[in-house]
Amino acid sequence: MTTRYEGAGARDTRLTIHAGGEEIGYDEVPEGHIALAFNYDEVFYIQGTPDEVHQLLVDAIVKLDRYQALQRLRGGTSDS
Question: What phi-psi label fits residue 71: left (phi over 0), alpha (psi between -120 and 50 degrees) or beta?
């Protein structure tokens, strides 16, 4: 089985946070957790404790910063 990739434009994607006990589609966010939802044609969400979701976002920012720094070193722009 291969992994299926789907994409959405950053400008067209809304972020929402759902608290424990809230319904998100047919699911319910467990108490003590939150769901970070990416809303575009479909909704994809990542569920975890607030600390887990925070760490995921910190990791994403670190990766983005590294990518942008590498692009600058190569003479490109961070927008490419």
Answer: alpha
